[in-house]
Amino acid sequence: MTDASAPPPPPAPASSPPSHAWGDNAAPPLPKRGGCGKALLIGLAAIGALLVIIVVVAIVAASNSTKNDDAKVKAAGDESGIQSNSLNGAHPPQADIDAATTKCDIDAIGDAHASGTLTNHSSKTSNYLITVRFTDASGTQFGTGNGTVQNVLPNSKANWEALGADKPPSAEWKCAVAQVERLSSAG
């Protein structure tokens, strides 16, 4: 007689280690790290904030330094009212302008015009850039004029002219040298 029932299935083989799932030469995936990413971001943010503070402090310090330099420049022009970017205290270019010779008139096309003389008190042949302010009787500025004088020898006089591009008012008006820059012609 044959038994109609089938034999029980054989036992399942023992499971293989999980390393076979990644291949023979592959490493298992790294475990997730808890707070390292957050700590890194916080550290980088702190370094960034520190750099911003350093930059702001540097800008403020540089600004204060510039203000001190500006005070020197304005002080050099205070006596005559003429400004300059020169820090030459021994022979400031403002002293080169003979304000008593400054004349205001109208040029051939009806624009404001100024002229005068200067003396080069520096020890080098120099070029000059002169800016003149034109004002009406009430002191309101209505224009400016510019002029250059080149290759003025030391201790020599030269004539200058500053041409404006503005029509003066029909009433009384004035002109005055507002700024002078002196640069060595030698380079």
| Helix coverage percent | 10-25%
Distance between the termini: 126 Å
- SSE order in H/E notation? HEEEEEE
Tell me the structural class.
alpha+beta
The CATH class designation of the domain at 93-184 is Mainly Beta
Low-confidence stretches: 65-78
Radius of gyration: 41 Å
CATH fold assignment of the domain at 93-184: Immunoglobulin-like
The coarse silhouette is rod-shaped
Please state the average pLDDT score: 79
Description:
The chain has 187 residues and is α+β, with helices and mostly antiparallel strands. The chain has a domain at 93-184: Immunoglobulin-like, CATH 2.60.40. It has one helix at 36-78, and strands spanning 97-106, 112-119, 126-136, 141-152, 157-164, 173-184. Strands 1-2-5-4-3-6 form a six-stranded antiparallel beta sheet, with no helix packed on it. It is rod-shaped. The protein starts with 35 loop residues before the first helix and ends with a strand.
List keywords for this structure.
single chain, 187 residues, alpha+beta, Immunoglobulin-like, six-stranded antiparallel sheet, 6 strands
